[in-house]
Amino acid sequence: MKKFFLFIVALCAVNAMATEGALSGKFSVSATKQVVFSQGNLQYQASTYIWQFAANQYDIVGADNNNIAADYTGWIDMFGWGTGNDPLKLSDDDEDYSVFNEWGANAISNGGNAANLWRTLTAAEMAYLFRSRTNAANLVGYAMIGSQHGLVVLPDDWTLPEGASFFSITDKGLVWDDTWWCGGYHEGSENHSEDNIYTIEQWETLETAGAVFLPMAGMRDGTMQQENYLGNYWTSTDGNHALVIREDGFLPPVDDNIGHYGCSVRLVQDYSPSTGIDDVQDNVQCTKVIRDGQIYILRGDKTYTVSGQEVK
Questions:
Q1: Are 249 and 189 in contact (CB under 8 A)?
Q2: How buried is residue 147: exposed, middle or buried, by Cβ count under 10 Å (0-12/13-18/19+)?
Q3: Do 114 and 306 meet the contact criterion of CB atoms below 8 Å apart?
């Protein structure tokens, strides 16, 4: 009982975003909301029904996604749209992907291991992150970490660490084009994978300062293709809206996509410092309870998730 009591007291004083698997940077996705990103892309192991985040932001599964099957003992990280309830779905009929089932509703083993701690960005939030937040275009840049190509996204309050370097898409000639139906950045001809080149050690310095990396993990359309050239990241809005990252400088935050494509999923948590448990510094009694299989913390007349978010 003593250990349990100490755990609860500690929980009442930790940072709201101390959930296992959460990165440190805060990113605006609307005029009033910030999020933090998970430590890596979402992965699933069919043989054990286990969800996890990749150990590193630059880790991808690649061609092993071709092994998708109910008895497969490896990991997959390509999912049809809204398949949080059926990650092995392989139908090529887009009507079979008409209902969104949140991946973050699942317990993620290295992400707090409880349901409903994470969520997928909406199309509007994705567009705001890349286009509308303050200094948006200067907080994004193509990069290569080791041999993995992808996109670096910097937090709102970014300060470049001493001795580090970063070139944004603006520095490299990408401009916003409103003539596309969705709008997006593009330069149109150059290979941008080498705009920023980092060793693992150099990347760790940027990550510690809050940087996020979205690897170009390719996509699955029957089989895996375009690894290190293309990265598609689902939004929760519908199967037609995804962030598209292409090595040649094609970067629409919310572009056309097809629901049955296997694409990457990167989950977030809402950051709410004004209501989070991190603001609690007094000795008000906290109690751990379980409701419908979920863990909650009761503090006074308020209820919080284990990640520190108030339950309304």
A1: yes
A2: exposed
A3: yes
What sign results for the dihedral spanned by CA atoms 213, 101, 20, 123? positive
Length of the chain: 312
The DSSP string of 105-161 is GS-BTTTTSSTTS-BPPPHHHHHIIIIISTTGGGGEEEEEETTEEEEEE--TT--PP
User: For residue 1, how many C-alpha atoms fall within 13 Å in the half-sphere facing its CB?
Assistant: 0
Q: Do the Cβ atoms of 51 and 38 come closer than 8 Å? A: no
Provide the mean pLDDT of the chain: 88
In tens, the pLDDT along 105-124 reads: 999 999 999 999 999 999 99
The sign of the torsion formed by the CA atoms of 78, 84, 86, 92 equals: negative
Detail the DSSP E strand segments found in the chain.
Answer: 27-28, 34-37, 42-45, 50-53, 140-145, 148-153, 175-177, 184-186, 197-198, 212-215, 219-221, 223-225, 230-234, 242-246, 250-251, 268-271, 286-291, 294-299, 302-305
- Residue (of 117, 99, 122) closest to 107 by Cα position: 117
Which residue in 93, 118, 26 sits closest to 260, CA to CA? 93
Instruction: State the CB neighbour count (10 A cutoff) for residue 192.
Output: 26
Reading the block at residue 254, the tokens are 């919310």
pLDDT tier, 3 (very low <50, low <70, confident <90, very high otherwise): very low
Helices H, strands E: what count in the chain? 3, 19
